[in-house]
Amino acid sequence: MKRFVTLLLPVLAAAALNSCEDSLPNYLISQGLQQGSLYLSARPIGEVLNDPAGDPNVKKYLSLSQKVLGFASQKLGMDTKGNYKTYADLKRRWVSYVVVAAEQDRMEAHLFQYPFFGGLPYRGYFKFADATAFAQRLRQQKLDVYVRPVPAYSTTGWLPDPLVTSMFASEVDFIDVLFHELVHVQFYVGGEADFNEAFATWFASKATERFLKETDFPESERTQLLADLKESQEADLLQSRWVHITLDRARDFYASRTFRDSKGEARDKLREDFFKRLAEDFKKVPRLEKWSQIEWNNAVLVSLSTYHDRVADIEKYAVEKSLQPEALLLATKNDAAPILAELQRLRGSACSRSFSRSPFAPTGSVAPSECLPEQIPRSEPAAHHPRTP
User: Fold this and answer.
1) Residue 379 above 70 pLDDT?
2) Is 122:100 a contact under the CB 8 Å cutoff?
3) Which long-range contacts (CB under 8 A, 24 or more apart) does 202-206 make?
4) In the structure, how many helices (H) and strands (E) does the chain have?
C-alpha cells in the first residue's frame, strides 16, 4: 500500500499544478498529496512501542489506543477497518485546520460540495497558510469565516488513519476523540454533517465512560481517570448549555423585525453590536470567560451548531426507544433515514435542545431542570456544538 502511494504522489502533484486554485479537483489533489505524505511518515505502533529510544508519553497513548480499539470492536460491535494501527509524529500542534463559512444575514452555513459526501459545512487543510488563504478569498465573497485547528480527523474508512501527536491532549480526551472518529468509520450520511458530528459527539461521551468503568485498569489509575472524566463531563455540560443559549439568542436576533427591516450600514452596525454584546456577556460566565475573546460571527455559530445542536435530540431519542448507544449505532449504520425523520420530529418538541438527561452528564445523574435556566443573561428579548470554539 505504501509503495502504491509513493508511486501515485508525483502523478497527483502534476495534476494539481494544472487545476484552478479553488477548484474541487485541485483541492482534493493537493490535500491528497499531504494526506499521502502523512501516511508515508507513519510507523507501525508495534515498532514504536518496541523502540528503546521511544518517548514514554507517546508509548502510553499508543498502548491506550489499542485497548480502546479492542473495546470498540469486542464490546461495542464497531468495525475499526484497520484504523489507528500506525503512528505519525507531526512535530506540530495540530494535524489540520478547518475553514467554516456562513452567510452574513442569517445562520446558514456555506456548503462545500464533495464527491460521495454531498454538501458539508467545512473544508479542511493540512497547512495553516492554505486555510487562511482560502478563508480570505471567502471573505471577499462577503461571507463570515472561521478557521479553527483540529487535533484529529477521519477519512471515514477510505484509508487506514494513523494516530497523530495532536490527539494526545489528555488520556480522557484521547479516548473520547478515538471513539468520535471511529463513529465516522461506521457511517457517514451524505449531506448530514450536523447529524454525523452530533452523533459522534454523543456516542463518544457514552463510550468513554463505559470504557473507563469496564476496562482492567489498576485501581488508582481508574480512580484518577474517572475523576478526570467527571471534570470533563462537567465542562462539556456547561459548554453545551451555553452553546444552546448562544444559538437561540442568535436565531432570535436574525428573526427580529429590527434586523429584518434594516439595510446597509445600519444592518452591519446591528450585527456588530450583537456580537460585541455576546462577547461581553461571556465575561460574566465562570469558566467560559475566554469565550469573550472570540471574534464572534455566523461562521463560529454554525460551527458550534454542527457539533452541539442535535446532541440532546439524539439522547432523547435513545431514551424514548430504550436503545443502548451500540444498538442505536448499529440501527443508524443499517438505515439512518427513519432515525433522521424521528429526530426532525423531536426538534419541534418543547425543551428538546435542553433535554435534562444531558449526554454529557455522568450516567445516573439528574440535571437540575427540564429546560434551560430562567436566569440567562440576555441582551436581546427572547421569543422562545467543537468543545470550545
Assistant:
1) no
2) yes
3) 202/311, 202/314, 202/315, 202/325, 202/359, 203/179, 203/325, 203/328, 203/329, 204/176, 204/177, 204/179, 204/180, 205/176, 205/233, 205/236, 205/359, 205/360, 206/325, 206/359
4) 14, 8
pLDDT tens by residue, 308-322: 889 989 999 999 999
pLDDT at 356 over 80: no
Q: Which of 357, 225, 247, 380 is nearest to 302 (CA)?
A: 247
Mean per-residue pLDDT over the chain, rounded: 86
Residue 290: C-alpha distances to residues 145, 302, 308, 325, 350 (Å): 20, 19, 19, 33, 31
The whole-angstrom separation of Cα 329 and Cα 361 is 20
Total residue length of the chain: 389
The residue with greater pLDDT, 115 or 58, is 58
CB 323 within 8 A of CB 331: yes
Task: Please check the confidence at residue 144 and state whether its pLDDT lies above 60.
Answer: yes
Strands 163-164 and 86-88, by their bridges, are parallel
Q: Taken in order 99, 234, 356, 323, is the CA torsion positive or negative? A: positive
